[in-house]
Amino acid sequence: MFNILGNLLNLTTFGESHGLAYGGIINNFPAGLTVDFDKIQYELDRRKPGQSAIVTQRKESDTVKFLSGIFDGKTTGTPIGFIIENENQKSKDYDHIANSYRPSHADFTYDKKFGARDYRGGGKSSARETINWVVAGALAKQLLPDIEIKAYVSSVGDIFCEKPYQALDFSKIESNEIRCPDSETAEKMISRIKEIKKEGNTIGGTITCVIKNVPVGVGEPIFSKLQAELAKAMLNINACKGFEYGSGFCGAKMTGKEHNDLFNSDFSTQSNLSGGIQGGISNGMDIYFRVAFKPVATILRPQDSIDKEGNPVIVEGKGRHDPCVVPRAVPIVESLAAFVIADLFLINKTRNIHNW
Amino acid sequence: MFNILGNLLNLTTFGESHGLAYGGIINNFPAGLTVDFDKIQYELDRRKPGQSAIVTQRKESDTVKFLSGIFDGKTTGTPIGFIIENENQKSKDYDHIANSYRPSHADFTYDKKFGARDYRGGGKSSARETINWVVAGALAKQLLPDIEIKAYVSSVGDIFCEKPYQALDFSKIESNEIRCPDSETAEKMISRIKEIKKEGNTIGGTITCVIKNVPVGVGEPIFSKLQAELAKAMLNINACKGFEYGSGFCGAKMTGKEHNDLFNSDFSTQSNLSGGIQGGISNGMDIYFRVAFKPVATILRPQDSIDKEGNPVIVEGKGRHDPCVVPRAVPIVESLAAFVIADLFLINKTRNIHNW
Amino acid sequence: MFNILGNLLNLTTFGESHGLAYGGIINNFPAGLTVDFDKIQYELDRRKPGQSAIVTQRKESDTVKFLSGIFDGKTTGTPIGFIIENENQKSKDYDHIANSYRPSHADFTYDKKFGARDYRGGGKSSARETINWVVAGALAKQLLPDIEIKAYVSSVGDIFCEKPYQALDFSKIESNEIRCPDSETAEKMISRIKEIKKEGNTIGGTITCVIKNVPVGVGEPIFSKLQAELAKAMLNINACKGFEYGSGFCGAKMTGKEHNDLFNSDFSTQSNLSGGIQGGISNGMDIYFRVAFKPVATILRPQDSIDKEGNPVIVEGKGRHDPCVVPRAVPIVESLAAFVIADLFLINKTRNIHNW
Amino acid sequence: MFNILGNLLNLTTFGESHGLAYGGIINNFPAGLTVDFDKIQYELDRRKPGQSAIVTQRKESDTVKFLSGIFDGKTTGTPIGFIIENENQKSKDYDHIANSYRPSHADFTYDKKFGARDYRGGGKSSARETINWVVAGALAKQLLPDIEIKAYVSSVGDIFCEKPYQALDFSKIESNEIRCPDSETAEKMISRIKEIKKEGNTIGGTITCVIKNVPVGVGEPIFSKLQAELAKAMLNINACKGFEYGSGFCGAKMTGKEHNDLFNSDFSTQSNLSGGIQGGISNGMDIYFRVAFKPVATILRPQDSIDKEGNPVIVEGKGRHDPCVVPRAVPIVESLAAFVIADLFLINKTRNIHNW
């Protein structure tokens, strides 16, 4: 249904950038899981503003409070309500855009669709909404203890991590500010962002996500193919412009003979250009995909724009903004992937009477 | 919900490659539309096998029969049931794969998930399912008479249509077998496919889709962003490996200053790197996106594979198959786009009390 | 979602009384069930017109054809499409109501809502739609082999089956035309209906349904309570005016001391005024409920009515109609109950990690 | 979907009796409505414990805080998040039931389904959940300013308000503690409840709800008939045992000739035994229905019961409980009715292209 993430396991959310709070409700989360709250806070901290020199310097504690659905440290099977209170908003920073439309923001479209908008900090269109997703994803991860979901920054501007994911040491993702496990590339990315930031400019990038140990059979044949649910989730992230999995856009240049992914006798496959999915259903190999993010639209320079009546105005990027969205988007990508997998994992428990 | 396309306007489907029929039910289609049945058959004919030398030579009439929801030539507002009977199946062609797993097909994953599978022609995993989507999309197009949805083949293997879509004459899309409006590129693509076909091989490609005249306001802010619903629909197409819209993966290399899409005084924008969508909501500019398709997995050569027990077997690509999926996928991409837009267009009628 | 029965296991349907066919699609039906087609036809025969002297004398074979989702006699886990072709329609019988509104029918409301209607035989509003539900319910019953779902006629007009269900021999339900297991009451009911029929009149009645052996735990705590899903399904049946379960409306006259349902030491309960459900979740005791049906609106006498412009007309009940809906509604009630239980039974497989 | 109220307009909720807070998220509420917060608090006050001598003496302020979706006093079209903090819980009152199962409560079914339960105050199974529904319903009422939704207590035990609703003065509903507009009957009901309370017992009752001025056309033909959506909502209310609309169970005793609801020349009908709905769609006449509530299960007397192991225990009704649920359920019934109507009202804006 509109505006709900997931099907069986599902998430509804609320919150605006400068409202009182963000929060959400997770429906149909199974009972009996002992929740590790530190792990949830750990994921929130990875997304948090102010965590390093290359992200926005806003300071928010981003602490989640669970209001229901957990009793004596365990999930009860009833809806999990949670809330993250907003703090440190500087709404005054936004008075200048109450009547102006910032380029490449949602100001104009919200105004036209809804007749008005909460303009403070982008209101509902703010990427702060993703904080809700990280809470839900961190819980979903705990539901899937055997599945490993790791994302990393695979490019910033034209600096690419050229090594394939198999050649990378994922334990190093958190060892640098940009979350690229190749330290040499990471350094280049970081200095590129610092440069860009100094100019008051911003820059795009990509994130690669790898999911290991998904059992065979996760994904539904029609309209809920695993890759389709992943793509939908990713394209909902603010600034996301593209999704590809397995061979992706490169696969479109190949021939069948090159691309076909031959079986080994243990049912694993040889090239995994398939990206761990066949016919919308996981095949037991690594699932991997890549997500493109455009540069953040708010730049700290004057830009020509228009107001509500179409008159020319100059908008200035005030406030504290990210020069590049990808380091903070890493936990968001992982969280959405975890939630999507968990949803399809749950329905899969019902799909074959011989597995009951 | 799982396995349902759309939200308010929604489609459920059935059918397997060698079953008796395909078909579907369209729910909540508005009443009062005079249906142009020829236009629906026209779209089916564009998808049909056997229409040219570069597609599969199977012959099927692919005629849709409407069973309900239309009376006196007009939609009645009640569910539209339709059926397309299968013909010309050569199930014998598939006996050899009853116990074998073809590389890069869904044979293995279906067997593991469901315990068994209809192996004839791929059963449910066959791309013949898309015939249902074309019926639904052709109806959705008629619901949106002012909106123009045009897709074309933008690459085959490494042959790209280099011109931007604005430089192309869309009236020429149907003028050649490959459905590329640039006739010079089209010729190259066609000869590449003929070459590949002669080798018993297959090749991938991409499709670009452009949607004009979508009114401002179509798309929902959270989890049903217009691009997210489009991505989900596209990634459900067999062989689809990626989706990008607007600046797409290229946008990830750019800076904010380059990428920002400045307004004109009439609320149109200058670069439209945004791809006609801001914050998940259409902004009135052209919506455009690109979809990647891998090469068809069935090649007409012997391939090493395994059987259900993991023993080595040789599978041979029998049957009649497409050397390249993209020319026939053009109407599929358009159809899904039309359905997604129609669904979000309908809910938009309810979202603002001042528009009632 | 609107116009879909069920949640995880779900049914969408199509068909109008005088259209080409009825049919439906069952989504997410588990794989691996060996389908007993005779049992499905048996249920359709119980619902069929023309089966006895006290129901409509229309003759229809009401044969279902499965078009997908079943292979080698077993469900495949993919959507089950089915169709029942219409025959023996006498559309001419309905020309007289194309512009008139029959009292207590949906003619007026359909016309106002949708701007027009298929008036032949009531079109979409015809109770023939329930044929789809019987197919789906007959499959759902087979998914729940240990659960027994039995409905019977508990009243016709003011003739009530006074015995509680525990005192009845359910094996006698099919032993008479009215489907009341108490043969003495059955006779009275039958002669009452014959009388009414002779007058060209119709009469209402109630059906009681008893469901045994539902395991503890079926039903969801909020908004999908077992009784709520049952009530919704039943109130969708044409002519249904009410639903009560357990103590029902009588329970509203009782005190807590009388009504409370004390436990036995084996967790069974003593009075089962609860009706087998506590907090929306099955408690292992018999689930029982009662459904009220108004008299069929089509009577074979002239009635004063109006046409589309509000002018007075006389409408005559032509065609072949049921004098009392309840004997044929028995399998419909059972079918919907089976489908609702199966849906909640399936999700329950996912709700507690200790049961995986 | 499971555990979600509504379809297009939908509500998800959270909260347990002795958790930190209740709350919910309303999705797809239209933009542009000026919210009257006093009216929302007024409805909450009608539901509030401690408001009179015949309801529970718990004291809770029951104040709702809106966290999102409303800006400058108007709905923004984005999700409306709200919270009601719990206070005045006396969790100690419930320690005695941590291991015992109270008769006719959900203790046993929750434990079996979920493996454990929040036993304090009934946890999720507490009727305090309905506070969320009143918030959502109060907003839905404001969306439908021309529609009047009034519920009243029509029976307590065997004391019935014999007058038909047309003979009652609805402005008197709030003039007495029991919310029965017939003051003579109200007095009898109140003294009956006082009597029952003195005995430490409880008693059941019914509520009648009347909805005026619903435009013709609200309700969907299949599976979302107006009466079906109403029934589902009502049967989700704690203690609800039955639902009937229009002629209801009495209609099952009538003949077609008596029951048929003849048209007047202005398309109104004469008897309205139909209850304002034909074929699942509103016909412009008053919609009326009746809901049965069993007596509250918690009685202030010792009762025989069992513990988790099946050993005999005595449970004592401690805490502060309602002797009769119906006076406080009146705003709950109205709220759910308002929400259901609003949901179907919104989709109806999309169902006929001639009304766009």
From TrEMBL, chains A, B, C, D:
TM segment ranges: none
Top-level lineage group: Bacteria
UniProt pathway annotation: Metabolic intermediate biosynthesis; chorismate biosynthesis; chorismate from D-erythrose 4-phosphate and phosphoenolpyruvate: step 7/7
Key words of the record: Amino-acid biosynthesis, Aromatic amino acid biosynthesis, FAD, Flavoprotein, FMN, Lyase, NADP
Upper taxonomic lineage: Bacteria, Pseudomonadati, Bacteroidota, Flavobacteriia, Flavobacteriales
Subunit comment: Homotetramer.
Co-factor note (free text): Reduced FMN (FMNH(2)).
Catalysed reaction equations from the record: 5-O-(1-carboxyvinyl)-3-phosphoshikimate = chorismate + phosphate
Gene Ontology biological process terms, A to Z: amino acid biosynthetic process; aromatic amino acid family biosynthetic process; chorismate biosynthetic process
Broad EC category: lyase
Pfam families: Chorismate_synt (PF01264)
Gene Ontology molecular function terms on file: chorismate synthase activity; FMN binding
Protein name in the entry: Chorismate synthase
Residues holding FMN: 238-239, 279, 294-298, 320
EC numbers for this chain: 4.2.3.5
The family this protein is said to belong to: Belongs to the chorismate synthase family.
Cofactor: FMNH2
CDD domains in UniProt: Chorismate_synthase (cd07304)
